[in-house]
Amino acid sequence: MTFSSTERRLDALAPLLKRQLERLYGTDRLATLWPRMEMILRDRAAERPAAMVALDDTRLGDPDWFVAPDMLGYSTYVDRFAGTVEGLTGKVDHLESLGVRYLHLLALLKAREGDSDGGFAVADYLAIEPRLGTMAEVERLAARLREGRISLCVDLALNHTADDHAWAKAALAGDPHYRAFYHVLSEDEAQAYEEALPEVFPTTAPGNFTDVPAMGGQVWTTFYPFQWDLNWSNPEVMLAIVDTMLQLANHGFEAFRLDSIAFLWKQIGTDCRNRPEAHFIVRALRAALDIVAPATLLKAEAIVPTALVPPYFGADEGADWDGGFEPECHLVYNNSLMVAGWVALAEQSATLPHAIVEASGGLPRGANWLSYARCHDDIGWGAVIGDLAEIDPDPVARLKIAARFLEGGDGSWARGAPFQSDGSVLHGSNGTMASLAGLEAAADDEAREMAFRRIALLNVLSIASGGLATTYMGDEAGLLNDTSYLSDPERAHEGRWLHRPEMDWAALDGAAAQRIGGDLAALRAARIASGGAGGPSAITTGNPAVLGIGCGGDRVFLNFSDTPVTIVAITDGHDRLSDTQFVDTLTIAPWSVVWAGPTA
User: What is the mean pLDDT of residues 138-158?
Assistant: First the structure.
């Protein structure tokens, strides 16, 4: 690839990028904005390293490279996993042994001093957190990962910066240019917005505004008071973030997790989530990336109701546009499927995951879900209220029962904890995969066996549903809840540290890791053999406890109950996991799976 090919992409994609900028900022502003945007695109393209240019060329020839049966991922904090970036480089062989093709390093960029929302209050987008390493070390890590065909992902916080970011410091010092990077309102204006705004952290950070006298008013702070929301109605923010993103791509990052993507645009009288302008912002970022660094993926962290998720892949709004489909993110978290899996375990019913699988098909080309069983965040129950309302007239009450069960109530085998709630209201639940699935509470071999099966069930749901199935650090080893955070004053208020333990490398030799790791390897092999990747299809099973998923040429059946069930097989076949044949009917053991391929 040469610089002239970048020019060709610029010519081809400029109308799409200009369309988004004009929608956001108007025709008059576009006239002065576009030359500056072009300069950024050309400058960053000229700086792109040869290795990344070669990767661009390869992936342009295979635009669906990340929608593949063997495309599985891993997510971790650097310090919890290996101490430092250099230490993590020495652990890449572990990732390779798991068949990982995608690595998401959480909270890698330089965070504010003190409390930083677990590293998501970014003080410098272009620097690595000093205690973790340097950008040069990250570049070496990225090169090592590319040798193993592993793509490196970093968080790009679009909604806010830390209050000690250089932009915020300049604003505090009275610089009007940077003050305009943030939302600063009068108390009356803030209250007018507040009337329609929900709270993200109602217990630890109530409200959406923080009085900052040095800024002359109320600063918009959707999350924590030290995270200042960026003012995307200011085109200077767009230019700064595009420039930042492209510089990071040139350092070797191959994917960006767009943090808090739903919150970007503010409009009075609304909840300021999922606004059309938020989509225009992301489409502009995608177009800029496709021009300069087309090997790079965008991933939407859109933890929103299921019906509002698909638009983050993009849309065709052709009434005033003949350019066709306008792409946004290559990947979108299938958060609703994750939540539905835990509801299914608590209820011993496949009803909700069946509905979510049905809603997860029909993806545009060049797009895929990122699926997972657990992550660094809580299980946020609100995402599936709308889906459950189609099944139950009182979805909140039903979800409260599931949450209480997973938090250890009602004689449960689960050992979770409520998040941002005392358990009386519905919000979220914390806990590691193993503890939530019953391994922590298991007192005998039979109970441990059932916990291992439940862990495998949720991994099957993630893998068989065709997405870029991502394992969260320590889940492959069956790590349990870690309450040590309670003795740390900077973390004690943040309950999600319960499921952010340090990696126990010795545990990889233990019985739990051997069992879970073996199950993961078998599931990866089954998916590769099936040829399955991309949007899933739901299969009706005739039994409310059994979920059926079409994965490639295979049919996968998950029994979400503690009793064996028998269903009609439809056709004879071969269970890839147990290496057995079946004819006419399928009997599935408690909390177990049959991965049905063609007859061997």
Answer: 98
DSSP string, 109-154: EEEPSS--GGGTSEEEEEEE-TTT--HHHHHHHHHHHHHTT-EEEE
Residue 178, both tokens: 């940077």
Q: Count the neighbouring beta carbons within 10 Å of the beta carbon of residue 553.
A: 11
Q: What string of H, E and C letters represents the secondary structure of 340-366? A: HHHHHHHHCCCHHHHHHHHHCCCCCCC
| Maximal CA-CA distance, the chain | 76
pLDDT digits (tens, 9 = 90+) for 169-186: 999 999 999 999 999 999
Indicate the DSSP class of residue 376: S
* Dist CA 539 CA 70 (whole Å): 23
Selection from 241, 246, 188 nearest residue 218 by Cα? 188
Alpha-carbon distance of 551 to 537, in angstroms, equals 7
Identify whether 301 is a catalytic site residue: yes
Distance CA 505, CA 380 (A): 29
* Whole-number Å distance between alpha carbons of 527 and 533: 8
The answer to whether residues 529 and 576 touch, using CB atoms and an 8 Å cutoff, is yes
Residue tagged 């957190």 (tokens): 129
Indicate the SS3 state at residue 519. Answer: helix
C-alpha 83/C-alpha 131 separation (Å) is: 9
The rounded distance, in Å, linking the Cα atoms of 245 and 156 is 8
| Catalytic residue from among 124, 139, 229, 301 | 301
Reference 379, options 440, 335, 344; nearest CA is 335
Other CB atoms within 10 Å distance of the CB of residue 180: 15
| Both tokens assigned to 236 | 């200077």
Q: Helices (H) and strands (E) in the chain — how many of each?
A: 18, 28
Catalytic-labelled residue, pool 259, 440, 476, 482: 259
Total-model pTM: 0.97
Summarize pLDDT for 256-281 with one digit per residue, the tens: 999 999 999 999 999 999 999 999 99
List pLDDT tens digits, range 100-109: 999 999 999 9
Secondary structure, 3-state, 417-431 = EEECCCCCCCCEEEC
Contact 71, 306 (CB under 8 A): no
Cβ atoms of 471 and 429 closer than 8 Å: no
Q: Which residue has the tokens 């109970």?
A: 447
Residue 1: pLDDT band by 50, 70, 90 thresholds?
Answer: very low
Q: What is the DSSP letter of 370?
A: E
Burial 303-316 (b: 16+ CB within 10 A, else e): bbbbeebbbbbbbe
